[in-house]
Amino acid sequence: MNADHTNHPDAECTPLKGWRAGLLWFPDPHSPKAQHETDGLLVTGQSADGIVRIQALGPYRELIQRYPDLPVTHWPGLCIAPGFVDLHIHYPQTDVIGSPADGLLPWLTHYTFPHEKQFSEPAYAHEVTAFFLDELMRHGVTTALCFATAHPESVDVFMAEAQKRHLRMITGKVLQDRHSPDGLRDSDTDLSLRQTEDLIQRWHGIERLGYAITPRFAPTSTLAQLHGAGDIAQQYPDVWIQSHVAENPDEIRWVHKLFPEARSYLDVYDRAGLLRQRAVYAHCIHLDEADRRRMAEVGSTAAVSPTSNLFLGSGFFDYAASEAAGLRYGLASDVGGGTSFSPFHTMHAAYTVARQSVGRPGISLTPEHLWWQHTAGAAQALDLNGKVGNLLPGCEADFVVLNPKATPLLARRTAQTDTLAEWLFAMIVLGDDRLIAHTVVQGQIIQNPGLQNT
Fold it and tell me: Spelled out in words, what is the top-level CATH class assigned to the domain 84-381?
């Protein structure tokens, strides 16, 4: 790298901090081509709006001359990288992870629904939320699009805890007014929609919090609820929409029976006004070409959840067809259908999934592309490009510090790599939470008991 990247109005940003280590980032956030500086300097400072942002980055020897009195935290041998972005995760399913089942629908019936009933109790929701957010930070995930439950309390508790931690998080009350058990089913459809609007007005845009209109999936909502959600989405165009689509063949057959007028599972949402930019649909495995092109046309996003899809036997996300259609996508853990909070496990699974195919050759995703899908690419898919998922000036100061020598095998393998791609791939395949030496949110090191400190 020959020049530093600087956000010039430094005088408006105080106090400034320096962070010296290796640097990994995406100079063009729309491109999965990473850049690596072995001895870099990251400068952060609080902007006038109270958000701590990255002000500059570059080679340490060059950039420090512009900031001679800068207090610098030095992490020799470590590497600063963007905080990970998780496009789809269920915080109330934290304690469901690792539950055996024959497939998606039995898993929901036997484990997920009974567990989610408990979130009507704020004290219980608070305990799970605190653990969940700690676990995200321990794994280096600093932004996530989360499902809550059908209980408004589950949203209030989550938002309050995320606000206290100064996190950028998005969540929403789950809408499900049929085919759901008592204690989880919305007994009054109109009330469920009023609760959604109330929660939007209470939380959306407060500090770094965002709201997502959240139908669980088409079979658990009546047409009245889906179209009511679409009306709210039209009224609040800057909120997010999240749901599931085309995950499992049994689920798809169920959708066709319930919505015979719709051309496809995705078309159910489209008819309801729930397909647009800032709409994120999990899985998207069994879409056809028309579905993919429709999502690309309106700017909707696929949240690829490879560990969940492998665990539940749902199928393989078709990367080649999605690329051909211009479909936006990014990576997600889907906990608890997914098997790990770790972005490294998710990236590794995505690599494996992309190699599989039905009726066509698989593709080999580059390590840089895998990393981009979980950082800058996921941020772009959330319409948060330039805010999270990167280290460019102007981005919010959420980042992780990697220790490529975190385990004996990692130390041995990364020491023998000759290229950036090899180095990244070794961490993807061999990494876990131990690779995250520090997680930094809004320029503050998060001190969780589970975090390694080097």
Answer: alpha beta
